[in-house]
Amino acid sequence: MREVMSQAGKRPVLISILELGGYPDFSKLYRSLGYEVYSLESMRKAIKFIKHNAVDVIVAEFNFQSDFRDRTSQVESLMASLAQKKGISVIIFYDRDQSHQFSRLTDQFQFHAALAYPIIDADLVKVIPAAQ
């Protein structure tokens, strides 16, 4: 696989936000594509990480949360935190059963890619290198 490099020869940074999981750990795949990978288990930790670090790609999962009054998921909080940041590609994993709720987000925010479960390595490889 090709090595992707960011400014000053540093490896680009990819954060993987694994709130619920339920799919394979793709860290090895991300590293094979040339990324420095950080796996975080909550959106809150990811938003804090992004505030203090340069990030090139974010891979997160859309989890519809009907108990939220003013939003559909934590992805909205993530996207709001990225409003002042440029050049970060966001890739979302989602459940086809939640397509209707997810479409409310795609109407509001621009994502680099959205992949429905089950996530297939080959599909992920197609969208990850293009993020740079």
Instruction: Assign a percent range to the helix content.
Output: 25-40%
Determine the CATH topology: Rossmann fold
The fraction of residues in strands falls at 15-25%
CATH superfamily: Response regulator
Number of strands: 5
- Write down the overall mean pLDDT: 81
Comma- or semicolon-separated keywords:
132 residues; alpha/beta; five-stranded parallel sheet; 5 helices; 31% helix
Write the topology of this structure:
Layout: E1 13-17, H1 27-32, E2 36-40, H2 43-52, E3 57-61, H3 74-81, E4 89-94, H4 99-108, E5 113-116, H5 121-127
Parallel strand pairs: 1-2, 1-3, 3-4, 4-5
Helix pairs in contact: 2-3
How would you sum up this structure, described in words?
With 132 residues, the chain is α/β, with parallel strands linked by helices. The chain has one domain (7-131): Rossmann fold (3-Layer(aba) Sandwich), CATH 3.40.50.2300. It is 31% helix and 19% strand. The protein has five helices and five strands. It has helices at 27-32, 43-52, 74-81, 99-108, 121-127, and strands at 13-17, 36-40, 57-61, 89-94, 113-116. It has a five-stranded parallel beta sheet with strand order 2-1-3-4-5. Helix 1 links the parallel strand 1 and strand 2.
